[in-house]
Amino acid sequence: MQLASIVKELEYESVQGDLAKEITGVACDSREVLPGNLFVAISGFTSDGHKYVGEAVKRGAAAVIVEREAVSSDATVTMIQVKNARLALAKVSAHFYQYPSEKLNMIGITGTNGKTSTAYFLQSILEATGKSTGIIGTIGTLINGELLETKNTTPESLQLQQFFSEMEKRGVSDCVMEVSSHAIDLKRTAYTTFHTGVFTNLSPDHLELHKSMDEYFHVKAKLFDQTYGFNVINMDDPYGQKLVEKVRGKEPAVVTYGLNPTADIYASDIDYSFEGTTYMVNTPTGNFKAKVNLPGEIYVYNSLAAAAAAYCSNISFEVIQQGLKNVAGIKGRLETVYSSGDYKVVVDFCHTEDALEKALKTIRPYVKGKLILVFGVYADESESGREKRSGMARVAATYADLSVVTSDNPKHHDPKLIIREISQEMKANGGNYHAFLHRKEAIEYAVRVSNEDDVILIAGKGHETTQIVGDQEIPFNEKEIVMEALRAKEKRVKL
Prior knowledge:
Udp-n-acetylmuramoylalanyl-d-glutamate--2,6- Diaminopimelate Ligase, Chain: A, domain 1; 35% helix
């Protein structure tokens, strides 16, 4: 594809070199540059692509997009300077792959909690219609049953456009995508067209990036400026109500959902059990009974969001009903990894105050013995990080009989400081707790002190099978650790 065609609609500051050259591909990682590629130098959280312009040129880049002047030893390389390289990357990537999102039925899901389970409920409904469906989110990217690992909940714009293009080639008709606030703020979803946007809820998270809940909300709300069909919004959430006021009257139709009968689509006659939930889905054109194989109110909301989005796509009640029922469970979402009578070990991805509270309140009614919680908090040393640690500690002290405080993904943060601050808040709120620096030891302790009627909730990592310490990603499979701890406990009992 001609470089002149790729950059035609870019607002660039200057151009040095020839635009009449053929481009073989786009790259934003210098290590992935191939001869004839267009390299876009973007600034990340830990590295700056401008430092690697020379390496990209050595690898054969034919052109480079930068935000500030960068020197190339090769005069034949075209240098294009723009104000925002991330926005430029999204634009040139979409153009190079010929705007593949426009050829898919794109459904974007955003909110603090519930994005993954809503996405998997919706994928199951779409597949129940016989459609080939792709999914992009926290657990990875799924194309025709093939799971591809991705680093972020919502990948970089270049990788997104590559995934959309691959889906189109493989005959995928519908793509369900989790849309994180980071992705919106960092322009990863720019030039992606969505038929439907879904809003789940909003609670404090990522405030190290967004600084305030108001800013966090306004970033999330940007997704609903990229839709052309429907905006499906949780009307029971205060920020959902605020979003309805913001987007109502615009071209995409607003469809609300919730437990309150004032919503367009609402749940009633809810019957909860630890094995799952049944409820009545009420719509403007009729109602039907839904069965969800996951416990608690949060999964009523998430499955109802999926049902509402499917309703907007004119999918029949029978198919929606079957699609919801087909979801046997979702990896790392209130997933029971061991069960024997009333004794259970459950893992969940909950890593915010709101999500942790919902998980504990969901499990609490079914616990005959003690509810034991293993948790840590990944949060930086900022004021918002301290607030998050305090909030999660207060929830733990309130709802768990015993909390085992430990690390999550400490990355470059000081785990001893984080654990100390959580412990101080636990003590201040009268919580019963023990603290362990190493997460494996914390899980082993929880198993060791548990009894036959107890339920252990291991919170924070869910589906993840690694732990990030510093720059290292260390293998860490909580299910395997649980099973090893149970075997060790059984041996001690026999002795």
